Amino acid sequence: MKTLNIGKDFSVDPIGRFRSDGDKRSGEAFREDFLKPTLQSLAQNEILEIIIDDGVESYGSSFLSEGFAGMVKYGYITKEELLKKIEIKYTNEDFEFFKKKILEYIAAAKYNSKVYVPTQPYV
Amino acid sequence: MTNEKLRVSIDLLNATLLRQENNVNVFTPYIPIIAVIIGSIAAYCFTRYHWSYSEKKKIEAEHLGKISTLISDIEKISIGYWIEAHNKDDVENEIYIKSKIKLLAKYVKNIGKEQESKKNDLNDFASNLYDLVTGDDFESHNRMASKSKAGLISFLCADILANISSHK
Predict the structure, then answer these.
(1) ipTM of the assembly?
(2) Domain ranges of chain A
(3) Is A22 on the interface with B (CB under 8 A)?
């Protein structure tokens, strides 16, 4: 099992949807630079544990939907496969809300429904 | 004849009184005291139950009051955020919005099972509000004002607040 700790490995302050929104802490950056490569490196049947509450205070919907559901929307993985491969973890019970939202966004995403066009960081 | 009838009545009365006397036992003098004690215990239990029920209702009402206040707060900040395009106050308001919605979800989670219907309504509301307020271009430097979004936020919040106050 591999672990991706959003707070430690990515940012304690994830912000925004696209790189062009102003920050390297966006959902797009998380997906393209962290989540996608990590999922692709998993062995068959290996699970990716994603810790969502280590140092992170909260998330916006724009970040979560772009970061997670974007994997399905841009055709990288089907929602069924993605849901099998990840386990969302937290110790702070307040983060149960964000876990539910992540799973909801993935379940609602339409596979390969959009062509990914990378955005440029806001300058 | 009259004397005979009178004699029969007196004999009957005597027989009845003798039966009563024979039915007296050691507990008979205490029956009134026991009745008073049982009555007092019953009254205490009823009062205790009523007090406990009232306290529970009071706590529930206070909890809903906290939730209503928080929803009004979120409504005010969110509408202020979305009626203006990206500006220097955004960073502060984004922090308020995210933390207050997280707190709302926590408060709703703490609603007891006895108010399951209200809890479900508030759960749906918190989820929809989160998507509406923190979706789209939330936290973007390119964010445009959206009065229609602000209107929707106001509508959602007014609806749930009316719902909560009608249940109190």
Answers:
(1) 0.94
(2) 2-108
(3) yes
